[in-house]
Specification:
Helix content is 26%, strand content 31%. It is of the alpha/beta class. It has two domains: 104 residues, Immunoglobulins (Immunoglobulin-like, Sandwich); 133 residues, 3-Layer(aba) Sandwich (Rossmann fold), CATH 3.40.50. The longest helix is centred in the first third of the chain and has 26 residues.
């Protein structure tokens, strides 16, 4: 196979061999460069690709996911990665995860962890779960995970959004001195609030209709049978008193009508936000679910009319 540098030199020699219009010798003409620049670049890329392939590099690739994973900092979190072997030989090597904190111009390494041995057959795609401990952050931070083999070659990267573990503390500041009320028969939310020291009124014991705080979160529920009789009327009663309510619905039945993921019912300057099952699933371990809950509580406190989607590209 021709060396890429020799091929490029041959192309340049061809250009320099073209006579100039002035007849004063031969030199690198602008017209030649304009005509052959695209071909030159393509030739360089093509031969570089062939050289890399011949050396056997790059046979394993990381398939980029559509959504960026969200994790809690300061603890071990699961990161799922898909590896694709595009080569003709089996890949079998130890894989190391290198964490890098990113900015607009740099990626600064903050730690490495050996993940163990990875084996991928030719033309095979494998899905691998890794438990990574992420450094503590005080606000949302973007981290880059580089997947490295034993020869210190980067196989691919995964971008991760890392969040502080006390995201739900914002509910306390939103509720203010009036307080936060929780009706959580499945104990999906209350353990997470207790773990970060957020005080709340347990509405399962005190009674929903007697709550006079600022925000009430009702649910999630395992089924309709778990919802107490007259629950809708009790929610309407406290909403009339000015309480903002987030009401999670149980999983739908097989033949129930299609519903939006959530919708608002205004009560004065507050609202009841009715939320379908799944919008905040896995509350204790999912930063995205907790962010969704905070947004829903904010919407109940400050309802706004529906708008058309914003199609402006996001950075």
């Amino acid at each position: 196979m021709m060396n890429p540098n020799r091929a490029i030199k041959r192309c340049l020699d061809y250009c320099t061999d073209q006579p100039s219009k002035t007849g004063r010798g031969r030199h690198l003409s602008h017209r030649c460069l304009q005509r052959d620049w695209v071909a030159l670049v393509r030739l360089s890329v093509f031969f570089t690709f062939l050289a890399v392939t011949r050396l056997g590099f790059g046979q394993l690739a990381v398939i980029q996911e559509r959504d960026t994973p969200c994790v809690f900092s300061g603890t071990a979190s699961r990161v799922t990665v898909r590896f694709r072997n595009n080569g003709e030989k089996q890949f079998a090597d130890d894989v190391t995860a290198r964490l890098c904190q990113t900015s607009s111009t740099t990626a600064m390494p903050v730690g490495e962890s050996l993940m163990g041995r990875l084996t991928v057959l030719p033309a095979q795609t494998v899905v691998q779960d890794f438990m990574l401990k992420f450094p503590t952050v005080k606000a949302e931070t973007r981290l880059l995970v580089q997947w490295i083999d034993n020869e210190r070659k980067v196989l691919g990267t995964t971008m991760v959004r890392s969040f502080p573990p006390d995201l739900l503390r914002e509910l306390k500041s939103m509720a203010g001195e009036d307080g936060l009320g929780i009706l959580d028969p499945q104990k999906k939310l209350t353990p997470a609030l207790k773990s970060i020291g957020v005080d709340f009124a347990d509405l399962e014991n005190s009674g929903l209709e007697n709550f006079h705080g600022r925000i009430a979160i009702v649910g999630p529920f395992e089924s309709k049978a778990q919802m107490r009789e007259g629950l809708a009327k009790q929610i309407e009663t406290i909403a009339d008193k000015g309480v903002a309510v987030v009401w999670f619905q149980p999983p739908p039945g097989r033949r129930e009508k299609l519903q939006p993921s959530f919708y608002t019912l205004p009560f004065g300057d507050r609202a009841v936000v009715v939320v379908q099952d799944g919008v905040v699933s896995n509350l204790s371990d999912s930063p995205q679910a907790q962010l969704n809950l905070i947004d829903l509580a904010r919407l109940a406190l400050h309802p706004h009319p529906l708008r058309l989607p914003d199609l402006t590209p996001q950075p």
